[in-house]
Design a protein that fits this description.
Layout (H helix, E strand, L loop, with lengths): L2 E6 L10 H9 L2 E5 H7 L7 E5 L4 H13 L4 E5 L9 H8 L6 E5 L4 H9 E2 L5 E5 L7 H13 L3 E5 L9 H9 L8 E6 L7 E6 H4 L8 E5 L5 E3 L2 E3 L8
């Protein structure tokens, strides 16, 4: 039976890809993905067949991967970060339905919350929430409720998809919601181009974050009340020093 791997390739560089993900890509015949992600792996797997679709064509992309696997080829559907966190794993299962062919194996990867946190320091040592600011698949009303709930609970917060050309003000709107419950001097950070050329990070207050320039290559971190700066690093203690 042929296999369809749903592979999280991590932030983009080979060093942050798991051994299991690398083995799956070596074992497959065809690699399918969004063209930006395919470009990240093409050079390392030159003997593979590559197939892509543009952004917003996720269902078409996943159905393509299923169809190719059903034709007898081993296929890897690649996802940036983790395959199950804002990735294609759930959609592959939905489209395959109750079929047992092709066999599906989900291979996890390093999501931006983890890799971005390491770049900034250690901002997620305690409980945290991950929220996407993209309202393409989730209503802004629901996103707003999730932001408020996370702020009220004093969770550290990671924001994915903070802005794009079609929604340039979403981070500002999110900060306005958070500022209803959090102080303007709450420590925040932005990690950009994690694991890729131009990788960089910035620390700032929540008030400053409201006016920060961001794009789809950024992951945003908002600390909880214990988060502090230590030697230029964003750190959220868990309380071990107090025990």
């Amino acid at each position: 039976m042929t296999k369809l791997f749903v592979v999280g390739i991590g932030p983009g560089d080979y060093e942050n890809m798991t051994v299991k993900a690398d083995r799956a890509l070596q074992a497959c015949d065809v690699i399918v993905g969004y063209h930006v992600y395919v470009d990240l792996v093409k050079e390392r797997y030159p003997d593979k067949e590559f197939m892509t679709t543009p952004m917003t064509q996720e269902a078409k992309r996943c159905q393509m991967a299923i169809d190719i696997a059903q034709q007898g080829k081993n296929v890897a559907m690649i996802c940036s970060g983790d395959s199950g966190i804002y990735g294609m794993a759930a959609l592959i299962y939905e489209l395959r339905g109750d079929c047992t062919e092709p066999e599906v194996e989900v291979i996890p990867g390093l999501t931006a919350a983890c890799s971005g946190a390491a770049l900034l320091g250690a901002p997620l040592t305690h409980d945290f929430a991950v929220i996407s600011l993209s309202d393409r698949l989730t209503s802004w009303e629901k996103i707003e409720k999730r932001l408020e709930a996370a702020a009220i609970a004093d969770l550290s917060i990671v924001l994915y998809n903070p802005a794009s050309k079609s929604r340039p003000d979403h981070l500002r709107l999110a900060c306005e919601i958070l500022l209803r419950h959090l102080p303007a001097d709450r420590l925040c950070g932005i990690a950009r181009n994690i694991g890729r050329d131009g990788e960089n990070q910035r620390l700032m207050s929540l008030g400053e974050l409201k006016e920060a320039e961001v794009d789809m290559f950024c992951t945003v971190f908002i600390g909880n009340e214990m988060t502090k700066m230590i030697a230029g690093n964003m750190v959220t203690p868990r309380g071990y020093c107090d025990v």
